[in-house]
Amino acid sequence: FTVLGMDFFGEMPVDEEYETGSYNAQCNFRYFGSGFMLLFRTVTGEEWDGIMRDIMSRHPQAWIFFFVYTISVTSLLFELLTAIVLDEFGRVHSSDELPFGPAMISNFNLHWAQLDPRATQMIPQQKLLPFLLSIKPPVFSSVEEGRQALLGMNITSADVNGCRQVHYVDTLVAVVRFRYLQQFHDIPDIA
């Protein structure tokens, strides 16, 4: 844009008195450096309308140049800001850092389906600990840790045909909460 400005408006005299006095020996398109600084002032909003009006006194179509420049640079800066925000959001919310990410949920579902082939969303309570130790990575590091943790996980069980059963959603929520509590010790108790 600086080179275009030099080509379009570089011949304008800088020693003349213009309407606002913004186009002068320090702010002009005569040289690349001063033209670049003029456009930098324009994008920061420093008296850009005065510069444009002074140039329009000699070149009435100069508003087109400034319009295209302002839209282009504003769009570029907006896209840059958006890219930075999205990159940071992606970095902070990376599924690799989650204590119970999408891969683990898929593994949980796959193993649950093997124990619940009729998709009742219920499995026998006595199969819960072996199930939680079988998913990758295991929810508990040992059988003893699993027994202790299951006592505090408050997974509701129901009597179905004389057999204690646990529900899929209750189990998944309890496991996710347990994993988060392991990683982030300051989650408030909502129960």
Automatic annotation (TrEMBL):
Q: Where are the transmembrane segments?
A: 62-86
The keyword Chaperone appears for this protein = no
Membrane topology is: Multi-pass membrane protein
Q: Where does it live in the cell?
A: Membrane
Q: Which UniProt keywords apply?
A: Calcium, Calcium channel, Calcium transport, Glycoprotein, Ion channel, Ion transport, Membrane, Transmembrane, Transmembrane helix, Transport, Voltage-gated channel
What broad class describes the main subcellular location of this protein?
membrane
Q: Which GO terms fall under biological process for this protein?
A: calcium ion import across plasma membrane
Q: What does UniProt give as GO cellular component? A: voltage-gated calcium channel complex
Signal peptide limits: none
One Gene Ontology MF term:
high voltage-gated calcium channel activity
- The superkingdom listed in its UniProt entry is Eukaryota
Domain Ion transport, residue spans: 1-94
UniProt protein name: Ion transport domain-containing protein
The record lists the organism as: Rhizochromulina marina
Upper taxonomic classification of the species?
Eukaryota, Sar, Stramenopiles, Ochrophyta, Dictyochophyceae
